């Protein structure tokens, strides 16, 4: 169960953390002798981040007060405590490869945040396309909604999560800026989001690209769940949060709702719900339970989107999961496949993806596979599913016996 943490403003949490024993431990040089130089270095680093905390109070509040708010298709309010994610932000900020951007640099890159450079807008942020002086194209995420302390807290939360995220299938963070607002600067993905290409493009994605996106996104999620120093639950896996490189490699982005899950905890229990309708797992909606299986369910919905070409929740508010489940039960593959694909797809790969999807969207979280099992399944290796074979899972025989 999730431990309770006293509510405190983000700036208070940040400053308290810099004074805590946890900060001293996490920034001490364990492998070095306790020399004067080491102590001096630690002292300087501690002073640096205490100064950073104070700068939020002086630099951010005035400029953030007048930022406009925008609506979104999200559930209600954000978490009151940011201590877990804030605790790793200094590690990120200490990395020399991360650049601190002045407001003037961001304004120049985005033509003063012009509307023509606006490429995305959500409940808590806007994303602008920009070009740095060296010619590099970037995406600049500017947090826009909430009180100054809420915006700072959201910024530090996402920054803290991304401190230890480094994988080919996750978005690349270049730097940040705190002058005139909270900004995150990321590498620009030339092909935009999966949602924009799957639903907003005249040219339909080929099956080969769709399968590549499915496998790459699964690899990214496995990394978040198992490959990071601490378990990360993304909580907002959806087509709009899968960016595509020039080679259509998928990159998971938007860690604004992500949560750490300590090793000794089985799950978080949250009282306020956030996320995107159509992707939310039943146990999250009913009981507020958050763990790896929350992401697995959302990934199953994403797989259905890739096969069917349908939205997770269409304009008539029909759920893709509720529409697809009867067809999955009947093994009605033809009805499930996106008509835009015609006959140009691998029937074996489609069966594998539908098998994975049907398992991922299972009502019971216990019956859903882990992401490493999903990857093995998508690669055509059923060995990791031996414990699942007793379940009546559609497409199992077809997925491993159909010819390509």
UniProtKB/TrEMBL annotation:
Positions of the Protein kinase domain: 113-396
SMART domains, alphabetized? S_TKc (SM00220)
Polar residues: which segments have biased composition?
31-46
Cited Gene3D superfamilies: Phosphorylase Kinase, domain 1 (3.30.200.20), Transferase(Phosphotransferase) domain 1 (1.10.510.10)
Entry keyword Transmembrane: no
Q: Where is this region: Disordered?
A: 25-50
Q: Which UniProt keywords apply?
A: ATP-binding, Kinase, Nucleotide-binding, Serine/threonine-protein kinase, Transferase
Matching entries from InterPro entries are given as:
Kinase-like_dom_sf, Prot_kinase_dom, Protein_kinase_ATP_BS, RBK1/2/STUNTED, Ser-Thr/Tyr_kinase_cat_dom, Ser/Thr_kinase_AS
Q: Which Pfam families match?
A: PK_Tyr_Ser-Thr (PF07714)
Write out the residues that bind ATP.
141
* Family from the record: Belongs to the protein kinase superfamily.
Entries under PANTHER family matching the protein: OS08G0249100 PROTEIN (PTHR47987), PROTEIN KINASE FAMILY PROTEIN (PTHR47987:SF12)
Protein name per its UniProtKB record? Protein kinase domain-containing protein
Native species:
Hibiscus sabdariffa (roselle)
